[in-house]
Amino acid sequence: MSNFTIYRKTLVFSWHRLLLDLIAILAVAGCIFFGMMIAPEPAIGIGIGALIGLLIFFLIVHFVGYLYQAGQIAMMTRAITENALPKDVVASGKQAVKERFATVAAYYAISGAIKGIFAEITKGINSLSKLGGSAGEGVGDTISGLISIAVSYLCDCCLGWVFLRKDEGAFRGTCEGAVLFFRNWKTLLKNMGRVIGMGIASFLVIGGAFTFGFYRLLGRFPAFVAALAKAMAEADSNMQDMSDPTVSLLVISLLFGILCWSIIHSVLVRPYVLVGVLRNYIESGRASQPDEASFAELDKMSGKFRKAHEKAGAETPAAA
Predict the structure, then answer these.
(1) Please, are residues 287 and 180 in contact by the beta-carbon 8 Å criterion?
(2) Distance separating alpha carbons of residues 298 and 284, to the nearest angstrom
(3) Of residues 166, 179, 194, the one with CA closest to residue 301
(4) 200-218 b/e (C-beta count within 10 Å ≥ 16 → b)
(5) Alpha carbon distance 96, 98 (integer Å)
(6) Contact between residue 229 and residue 47 where contact means Cβ atoms under 8 Å apart
(7) Which of 69, 81, 112, 236 is the most buried (most CB within 10 A)?
(8) What φ, ψ does residue 316 adopt, rounded to 5°?
(9) In angstroms, how far apart are the furthest CA atoms of the chain?
(10) Are 229 and 209 a contacting pair, CB within 8 Å?
């Protein structure tokens, strides 16, 4: 199956995630609106409502959305390795997540440790770049940004490997995926031009369209914009310019536009790029599967990974 065919047939997961995101956005908007209406001071009500709304947004998008994302990756992995997909990919994706729930949960738990190692690498790059002055800092920030994007894709690829290794226990499959993660991140960085290019294009088209739409829409509600601008200025001293109605309208429209872009890019554009990256990752993993020597290298880098590796040695395949 071609990458586009896999993307098209697994896109239904993205539509489900988009619906969840829309519900989460409406929850945020509703909390802000009710906070403004109920509180004696509109700016205070907006601030409290925004905090509650963002908490709800986080719970919906971060946890429930993750399950749909895991199901999508499971079906992408199946299509790449078996060259076929079931008729009902959503039901099969849910079943795959249910069958490997312990593995998915284990990977989710230690993925923070994996990202932490890269954070240390990024910190080291930034420290060295400061020695080169402002130009060096710019180079360091660019490399750090590329590494961050690479990490996000490789985390998904690692999860795909977890679904592929059905014969392994929860922690063993997770540790193998993490090892492949570190083996292939340099290769991904070499192909970041395509990833970055698609990201910039979607930002200009999608983000620009939503920013313009919010600018026209919010311009009809100056009282709401003024109250929101006041709340933002009180929360951050660097945003005192928000007292200017034109500036506040533009900034707020841009923020909403970026939020909508990040959601749509994540659920509709990014999966297309992920299929190609995931295919290369799985092919590399099949060609050279992780061994104990590779595990030992990561044991030295992360205490959390070492603990997961110890649990992997104690479990049996039935633990999955």
Answers:
(1) no
(2) 19
(3) 179
(4) eebbeebbeebbeebbeeb
(5) 5
(6) no
(7) 69
(8) -115, 160
(9) 65
(10) no
Per-residue model confidence (pLDDT) at position 318: 43
Amino acid at 235: A
Which residues are CB-contacts of 231 (< 8 A; sequence separation ≥ 6)?
43, 44, 46, 47, 50
57 neighbors 24 (Cβ within 8 angstroms):
yes
Tokens of 74: 């499971």
d(C-alpha 275, C-alpha 269), whole Å: 11
Most confident of 77-86, 90-99, 121-130: 77-86
- The candidate with the shortest Cα–Cα distance to 35, out of 8, 53, 57, 15, is 53
Tokens of 174: 């997770």
As a whole number of angstroms, the distance between CA 138 and CA 126 comes to 9
Domain spans, the chain: 101-189+291-320
Q: Give the pair of three-digit tokens for residue 80.
A: 């790449």
Contacting residues for 141 by C-beta, under 8 A, at least 6 apart: 126, 129
Cα(318)–Cα(304) distance, integer angstroms: 23
Helices then strands, counting H and E runs in the chain, come out as: 14, 0
Token pair listed for 251: 């900034």
- Average pLDDT over the chain reads 79
- The residues, any chain, with a CB within 8 Å of residue 49's CB and separated by 6 or more, are 31, 32, 33, 34, 35, 36
Higher pLDDT, 316 or 105: 105
Tokens 């590494």, residue located? 147
309, 319, 260: which is closest to 101 by C-alpha? 319
For 193-250, what is each residue's pLDDT tens digit? 777 888 889 999 999 999 999 999 988 888 878 877 777 776 666 565 666 777 788 8
